[in-house]
Write a structure and sequence with these properties.
The protein has ten helices and seven strands. By secondary structure, the protein is of the alpha+beta class. It has one domain (about 45-220): Glutaredoxin (3-Layer(aba) Sandwich), CATH 3.40.30.10. It has helices at about 5-35, 45-50, 75-90, 110-115, 125-130, 135, 145-155, 160-165, 170-185, 205-220, and strands at about 55, 65-70, 95-100, 140, 140-145, 190-195, 200. A five-stranded mixed β-sheet has the order 1-3-2-6-7, sandwiched between helices. Strands 4-5 form a two-stranded antiparallel ribbon.
């Protein structure tokens, strides 16, 4: 004769069933997570390199520095000459892609202005001027684009055209992509550097030079 289940045994069976469901759900979640593509391995090129981003240096260089920067960032200003010196040192072998992001207060219009200078083929001139006079338009880490316009005008930029272009949908889309890519790469501070897709994990001028040197040696092995 089949033994009747007691109330206690039924409760235990119910608990066991719930535990099994929970364990199964955890396994599914872990499996999905493990199958997800790695940002750093699979999608990093899509996040680092933008068709809208101009290149400083040789387009044929095998080593590319990607820098996420905030125009009002003092460290970005300090590192800019160093980056340019590395491009000069490894002439034809290293180039730079600079992608602006707005982290500081009121710096959004300044980023828009820099983006708009691309329409006048003046981005690199504008970037140099913007960083050089940073202390004049970014006071107490608060940006004021109106204070920047005169310096850009002295660099030969049409300010009337610039102000119109700054409000265009194209500029808004470009800024949104830079911000989205930075977020996906977990860029929360500036400057953040990548060299041939490899992040500078320990910040510093010596470390950046060493990373660039390693990538140059790999890309251009001595014969």
């Amino acid at each position: 004769m089949k033994k009747l289940a007691t109330k206690k045994s039924l409760e235990q069976q119910k608990k066991n069933k719930i535990i099994s469901i929970v364990i199964f759900s955890i396994v599914i979640v872990i499996g999905v997570f493990l199958l997800m593509p790695s940002t750093t391995d699979k999608n990093i090129d899509q996040l680092l390199y933008s068709q809208n981003a101009p290149i400083f240096g040789s387009k044929h260089a095998k080593v590319t520095i990607v820098e996420f920067f905030d125009p009002a960032c003092e460290s970005c200003r300090a590192f800019y000459p160093l980056v340019k010196s590395q491009i000069k040192q490894y002439k034809g072998k290293v180039n730079l892609i600079a992608r602006p992001v707005a982290f500081h207060k009121n710096v959004g219009p300044v980023v828009a202005a820099l983006e708009a200078t691309k329409m006048q083929n003046k981005f690199w001139d504008a970037l140099r001027i913007t960083l050089y006079y940073q202390s004049s338009w970014a006071i107490n880490h608060t940006a004021n684009v109106d204070l920047l316009y005169p310096y850009l005008q002295d660099a030969g930029i049409d300010i009337a055209k610039l102000k119109i272009d700054m409000k265009s949908a194209v500029i808004a889309e470009n800024m949104a992509k830079d911000a989205k890519d930075a977020k996906a790469l977990k860029v929360f501070k500036t400057p953040t550097f990548y060299v041939n897709g490899k992040a500078l994990t320990q910040f510093g001028d010596v470390q950046l030079k060493a990373l660039i040197e390693r990538e140059v040696r790999k890309a251009y092995p001595e014969k």
